[in-house]
Amino acid sequence: TDISFTHLLELLDRINVQLSEFEFLYQKCNANNNDLLPSFQKAYQSGDIVVLKSHLRLWQHKQGKFAELQVIQLKMMLTTLNADNITKKEILILEDYFKNISNWTFFELYLFGHAMPFLDEKFMFHLFQELHQKSILYDNFRYDSFSMLFYIYNNIILFMLEHDHLDTADLLIQKLTYYFNQQEKDYYHRARLFNLQGLALYLQGKKEIG
């Protein structure tokens, strides 16, 4: 049955479960069934074009907005791997969808992460600022969901460095550095952050330090 987001929040409040916990449990229970995002991501990271095209054919025969967005997401992955082409119409569909998001979930974060190279620069950065301003909503998420936010931070910092927006990239790196200074045991993200810091210093002309 259909349920409104407000009603869902009321139900979760009654049983003393936070929205972040609910999303985490949903993702965990549906990772191998209803939710194919982990499968998409695994195929994408390994460059498995055959699997991605198989998923694409499956979703192209489904109806509804979610199916349409899944098709676009898969086409973006394949385009990045030089195995397909995303159209201007599909980018406009994405932009319209992003403009009307009231509650960002794992799906929207994945979608935005893959859409970043294809979106208009100003539009993309505006969306990122919106996510950044709402970061308090995600600070209480489980560890793996913050990894998605780090993935987005990582991509936008690399984008800013590539387009010579060094001051903006440096500001974002400082924000991440401040956060991870409080997370001494988080070696994985700290190592990736160290790489971003080195790249930024190198591009700023501080080659010996970087």
From TrEMBL:
**Species, as recorded:** Leuconostoc mesenteroides subsp. cremoris ATCC 19254
InterPro entries from the entry? Answer: HTH-type_regulator_Rgg, Transcription_activator_Rgg_C
| HTH-type transcriptional regulator Rgg C-terminal domain span | 56-208
Protein's recorded name: Transcriptional activator, Rgg/GadR/MutR family domain protein
